[in-house]
């Protein structure tokens, strides 16, 4: 028993020392992004406008969004394209259900049409086209790396755009992902890049349902254990080790103590996954918090402050006089 305790303590000490050794410094702050409403994939569920397209981003701009969120994958020829799902057939016409996005070249993807586009003119955009659109419209941009097979290559391709458009990318974009390795890899390559860790309570369970053959042994039998361990990794370890600028939980994890914990560290909070406007409470629409919405963005905006008509500072002077009088009274009592 004593030997087990000794070896266990030594292992913990070595693990802690290793983590401290690889820990990266804090990234550029994004706490000032609080109050921004992002168009989730531009928009979702809007008639005749496919998500994750320039048209979706334009819709978000026209409805008052201050930023957009997009999903990035690699094509067969390693070009960065904006698409959410692994399989192309989920949103594109005349594509086999089992054919993945990374099995098409960029040219082939540009030829495909969206099932929800009556004009047949909307096409899959590249990340660079999206960056240029957001730059021209003065938008903040959240870039979610969805690629898993070649996650690090995808990340490095995104970093190439930081070097190509430094004035815009470093100040107005944040690289986000469910994959902790992507975040660490990005900041290891470039310490000026802002990153954000995405997570939810049941991410692992959902993945098991979608890809059971890839999950083996204990984790397949106990998906809740996988959920717990993944949340610990994505919430407690990854943001600290990678020096994340944003923490990005699904909205149902949020509470006031949660916000205080992150904001005191100068880390912003980004909430997503809302099913309706009622889910976005007043506590979620305050400084230090930004949110993503599929549509009806005005319902997710922070409340407007009451107008201050005290332009000459009379109220402030009166408050200072009252404080001085109170201080004098206290001194006399002593």
From TrEMBL:
PROSITE patterns hit by this protein: GP_PDE (PS51704)
Gene Ontology annotations of biological process type: ethanolamine metabolic process; N-acylethanolamine metabolic process; phospholipid metabolic process
GO MF annotation terms: glycerophosphodiester phosphodiesterase activity
Gene3D superfamilies assigned: Phosphatidylinositol (PI) phosphodiesterase (3.20.20.190)
Source taxon at top rank: Eukaryota
Domain GP-PDE: start-end pairs: 35-305
Annotated region described as Disordered, given as residue ranges: 303-334
Composition skew (Basic and acidic residues), residue ranges: 312-328
GO cellular component: plasma membrane
Pfam family, one: GDPD
PANTHER family associated with the record: GLYCEROPHOSPHODIESTER PHOSPHODIESTERASE 1 (PTHR46320)
Full protein name: Glycerophosphoryl diester phosphodiesterase family, putative
């Amino acid at each position: 028993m004593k030997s087990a305790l000794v070896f266990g303590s030594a292992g913990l000490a070595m693990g802690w020392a290793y983590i401290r050794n690889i820990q990266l410094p804090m990234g550029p702050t994004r706490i000032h992004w609080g109050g921004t409403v992002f168009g989730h994939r531009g928009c979702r569920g809007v008639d005749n406008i496919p998500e994750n397209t320039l048209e979706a981003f334009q819709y978000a701009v026209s409805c008052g969004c201050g930023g957009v969120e997009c999903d990035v994958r690699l094509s067969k020829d390693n070009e960065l394209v904006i698409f959410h799902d692994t399989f192309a057939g989920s949103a594109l016409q005349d594509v086999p259900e089992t054919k993945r996005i990374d099995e098409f070249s960029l040219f082939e993807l540009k030829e495909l049409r969206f099932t929800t586009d009556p004009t047949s003119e909307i096409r899959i955009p590249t990340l660079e086209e999206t960056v240029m659109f957001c730059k021209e419209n003065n938008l903040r941009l959240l870039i979610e790396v969805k690629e898993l097979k070649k996650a690090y290559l995808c990340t490095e391709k995104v970093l190439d755009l930081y070097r190509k458009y430094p004035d815009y990318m470093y100040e107005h974009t944040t690289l986000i992902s469910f994959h902790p390795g992507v975040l660490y890899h990005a900041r290891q390559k470039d310490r000026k890049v802002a990153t954000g860790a995405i997570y939810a309570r049941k991410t692992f369970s959902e993945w098991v349902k979608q890809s059971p053959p890839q999950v083996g042994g204990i984790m397949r039998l106990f998906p809740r254990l996988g959920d717990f361990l993944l949340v610990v990794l994505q919430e407690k370890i990854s943001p600290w080790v990678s020096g994340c600028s944003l923490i990005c939980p699904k909205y149902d994890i949020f509470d006031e103590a949660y916000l205080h914990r992150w904001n005191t560290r100068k880390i912003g909070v980004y909430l997503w996954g809302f099913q309706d406007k009622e889910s976005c409470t007043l506590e979620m629409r305050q400084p230090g918090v930004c949110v993503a919405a599929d549509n009806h963005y005005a319902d997710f905006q922070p409340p407007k402050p009451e107008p201050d008509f005290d332009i000459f500072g009379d109220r402030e002077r009166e408050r200072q006089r009252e404080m001085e009088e109170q201080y004098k009274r206290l001194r006399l009592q002593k």
